[in-house]
Structures are given as C-alpha cells and as structure tokens.
Amino acid sequence: MPRASPRYHRTVTTLAQRKRQLVATELTEAALQLLALRGFDAVTVDEIATTAGVSKRTFFRYFASKEDVVVQFLAGMGADMRAGLAARPAGERPSEALLHTVSVPLTVCGDHAERALPVVRLILRTPALLARFLEHQARWREELTEELAVRLGRDPGTDLRPRLAAGVALAAFDAVLHRWSEGEGTEDPGALIEEAFAVLAPALDATAG
C-alpha cells in the first residue's frame, strides 16, 4: 500500500488547524458579544455554544471556562504588542517605537467601536476579568521590557530604564482604555494615545541616553 506523501500530511494538518481556528474564533466572537450585552454572570456556556453553533462539549475542548475566552483574547493582544515592537526600525526613538506598539490594538478598537467598546467595558467592570487583565498587563510589561532591553543594549537586571519605559507605555495604554470606556465611545482611542505620548515622549526618549 503506497504511503501518503509528507505534502499530503502537511495539507491535512493545515486544514485541521484552520478548522480549529475557525471554531475558536466563532466561540470567541459569540462569547464576547453575549457577555458584553448581558453581563458576565448572566451568560451560560450552553448559550455561548448554541450561539456559535457548536455543542457544549466542543466549547470545553477549546476553553476551560467563560473567563478563559476573555483571557485568551487578552493573551493574543499582548503577543501582537511584542511582535509589533520587535518589528520597529532599530534606530527609532523609544517613544516612537512604543507609541506604534501600543496604538495598534487601540486603533483596532476605535475602528470597531460598536463591537470593541462593550467588550472593553465588560473587562474593566467585571472584577474577575479585570484581575486577569492586570495579570496579563504584568506579563506584557515583562515582554516589552525584554524587547526594549535588546533594542537599547541594556541589561534589565541591572538597568531600570527598559522596565520603566515599558511600564510608562502600558500605563498610558491603560489610561486611554479607561477614558474611552467611560465615555460614549465617540472619542478616538488612537488619538488619545498620541496625546498621551506627546506628554511622555521626553521621558521615554531619555531611556536611550
């Protein structure tokens, strides 16, 4: 019996991965919208699964809980930030590189405010989710610190500047999210982060000195 080619296996694997990603995306979308609309405690896993068109058993193959859906969403945001910072030109000022890094998710939120704003409010106003959000921010700070240390040629174990710069950038990110979530959604979070960095830029660029 002829053996299947490696190319066949790669194709099958790719299709399976795409299917898993599609189901995960459907579940995430359904969960975030239901939770944002009705509140974290009012939505059941059964309702999320039904809305996504899958079984409850399928839901638990992808997520351990309702909370885990939101946590995974936040983890993806942090990975995008680090990748964004790593992709910035090596000679770019720290303030410019960090502004681009944290403005990407904020710009996406602003471009899809009708969907993103309820989710941001859900996270910031639900104690359990806010706690996980802060946990993720701590991880983002460590990841950005490591990336900044490489860019600046500094050892984060002995030099405070990379960690301070990462912390300042994320504090601005957090302040903008809170400001945006407390309003009517008419403000542009991308413009707000630029306003914040206009104030912070001198201090951030001093870290390169």
Give the helix proportion (percent range). over 70%
Q: Give the overall shape, derived from the CA principal axes.
A: globular
Q: Quickly give the structural class.
A: mainly alpha
Total number of helices: 9
**Percentage of residues in DSSP E strands:** under 5%
Query: Count the strands?
Result: 0
Q: Unreliable stretches, pLDDT < 50, 5 or more residues? A: none
Spell out the helices and strands N to C.
HHHHHHHHH
Q: Mean pLDDT, as a whole number?
A: 86
The first-to-last residue Cα distance is 67 Å
Main β-sheet description: none
User: How much is the radius of gyration in Å?
Assistant: 20 Å
How does this structure look, described?
This protein has 209 residues and is an all-alpha fold. The chain has nine helices and no strands. It has helices at residues 6-38, 45-52, 56-62, 66-86, 94-111, 113-125, 127-152, 161-182, 189-206.
Describe how the helices and strands are arranged.
Blueprint: H1 6-38, H2 45-52, H3 56-62, H4 66-86, H5 94-111, H6 113-125, H7 127-152, H8 161-182, H9 189-206
